[in-house]
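can u do me a favor
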């Protein structure tokens, strides 16, 4: 990680307040998976065209997430089965700033991701009446339909292009945990390119093309559960799971 921090030093830095103009709560996104050994070269290619989020002197930020689903895994199965107009519900903790949010993500049938969130005091799995009201208004799910499923964590680098029209997140070594086991994909970096409008190629996608890194559908929630649970339906994820076990475990 020290090598990566050294590469990040020359980047122009931005603050959270700078990112207000590129929050992209309603956006299109594209995901990529790459080996951590590819990360230094990719970052070197980006440093003149992207700025780097820095919080309290840190540029590699720790995130913790707690995901919720129905007892019959409706949200997981909707994603697995390719259903459009699907939801994810999670609680997220930003370690550096010690902020917590309850977030509802909606992927609509136009391919756009719409995220709503509210602040909360802690990282616990219980919901307050206000939060239950928020969930009911932001999704088709209610209090009795939700239970915590898995916890995930990762280290994130956040970049914004010089025009403040796109944001790029690079999630390093995602880890997943449930009550029975835990797993860390130490060699994996999950990249998400977030834009207000589709149709123009982000610079980072051109760099990925040069490094033979191709776009890849990837849900940390779904892949985490697929890796942790033997019995859960995972037919659609098998090619990606095979790639993960081959390239990113060790």
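np, heres the sequence
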């Amino acid at each position: 990680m020290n090598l990566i921090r050294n590469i990040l030093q020359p980047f122009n830095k931005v603050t959270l307040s700078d990112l207000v103009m590129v929050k992209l709560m309603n956006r299109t996104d594209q995901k990529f998976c790459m080996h951590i050994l590819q990360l230094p070269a990719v970052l070197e290619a980006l440093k003149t065209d992207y700025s780097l989020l820095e919080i309290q002197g840190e540029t590699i930020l720790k995130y913790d997430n707690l995901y919720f689903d129905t007892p019959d895994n409706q949200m997981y199965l909707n994603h697995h089965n390719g259903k459009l107009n699907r939801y994810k519900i999670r609680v997220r903790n930003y370690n550096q700033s010690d902020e917590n949010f309850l977030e509802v993500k909606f992927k609509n049938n136009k391919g756009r991701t719409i995220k709503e969130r509210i602040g909360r005091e802690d990282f616990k799995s219980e919901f307050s009446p206000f939060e239950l009201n928020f969930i009911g208004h932001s999704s088709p799910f209610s209090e009795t339909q939700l239970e915590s499923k898995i916890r995930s964590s990762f280290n994130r680098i956040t970049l914004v292009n010089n025009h403040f029209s796109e944001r790029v997140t690079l999630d390093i070594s995602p880890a997943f945990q449930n009550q029975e086991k835990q797993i860390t994909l130490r060699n994996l970096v999950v990249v998400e390119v977030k834009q207000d409008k589709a149709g123009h190629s982000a610079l980072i996608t051109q760099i990925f093309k040069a490094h033979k890194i191709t776009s890849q559908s990837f849900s940390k929630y779904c892949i985490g559960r697929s890796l942790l649970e033997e019995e859960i339906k995972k037919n659609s994820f098998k090619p990606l799971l095979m790639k993960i076990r081959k390239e990113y475990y060790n």
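DSSP finds seven helices and eleven strands in the chain. hope that helps!!
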